[in-house]
Amino acid sequence: MSNKYTYRDLKVARYIKGRIPRHIGVIPDGNRRYAKKYGLTYLEAYQHGVEKAQDFAEWCRELGIKYLTYYSLSLENLKNRSSSELDILFKLMEQYLKKMLYDERIHREHVRIRVAGRLEKLPSNIQQLIKELEKATASYDRYHIILLIAYSGRLEIIDAVRKILTNISGSCNVNEEVFRRYLYIPEIPDPDLILRTSGEMRISNFLIWQSAYSELIFIKKYWPEITKEDLIRAIEEYQHRERRFGR
User: Fold this and answer.
1) Which of 3, 77, 87, 175 is catalytic?
2) Which of 3, 9, 29, 125 is catalytic?
3) Active-site residue 31, yes or no?
4) 125 is catalytic
C-alpha cells in the first residue's frame, strides 16, 4: 500500500457509515504548557492553537459532524489572566474572526458561525466583528461553529433563570423544554461528545446544562499537538460506548 494513505484515509469511510456524533464540544486546553514545552512565546503558542482550531473544524466537516463548539475564552480566563496575555488573546481573536469573515471555505461550505457568552465584556472591535460574522453567515445551515467567548456555564443558567422570572408568569409550568428556550443558543443540540486536551479531567464550566449526557474523552496531548488521527480515535471510542441517557 502506498505511503500516501493516512490513518484517516483508511478509516473515515467506516465512521461516516457508523454512529458519528452530531455535535462535538471542544475544550482546547494546554496552550501555555505547550509554549513552555517547546520554548515558545505565548503569542506563538496561541497562534499554533488558532491554526489547529481551523484544521480541527475542517476535519469535522470531512467527517460530516454538523455542530462544533469551541470553548474559546472562559469568563474566568477573562477575569484572571494578565492584561498582557489578554492583549495577545484579543489580537489573535480579532485576526481569527476577520479571517473567518472572508474565508471562502466558510461561505462555500455554508458554515454558520454563532458566538455566546458575556460579549459585552469584550473590546468593542471584537464585538463588532462578531456581529458582522454572525450576520454574514446567518442564512447558512450545513455546518455550525459555535464560539464560547467570555463564557460561563453557570452564568448561562443564571441568565436563563433571570429571563424566565422576567418573562413568564408564576402559573407557567417551567420544564426542561421551557428552560431550554432561554439558553444562549437554544436551538443547538446538546453535544454528543466533549473532548478536552492536555490531560486535565474536568469540564471547567463548559456547557453545564447541555453536557448532562455527553460522552467525555480526555486526550493527554496539548491542544496544538492534536492530530486528525486523535479525532478519529476519539470517535472510534465514542462509537464503542453505549449511550443510556439515564435508562
Assistant:
1) 77
2) 29
3) no
4) no
Q: Is residue 245 part of a domain?
A: no
Cα angle: 110, vertex 195, 8; to 5 degrees: 65
- Determine, yes or no, domain membership for 230: yes
For the stretch 24-75, pLDDT in tens is 999 999 999 999 999 999 999 999 999 999 999 999 999 999 999 999 999 9
244, part of any domain:
no
Q: For position 138, which CATH number holds?
A: 3.40.1180.10
Which pTM value belongs to this model?
Answer: 0.91
| Segments forming the whole domain that contains residue 107 | 11-152+192-237
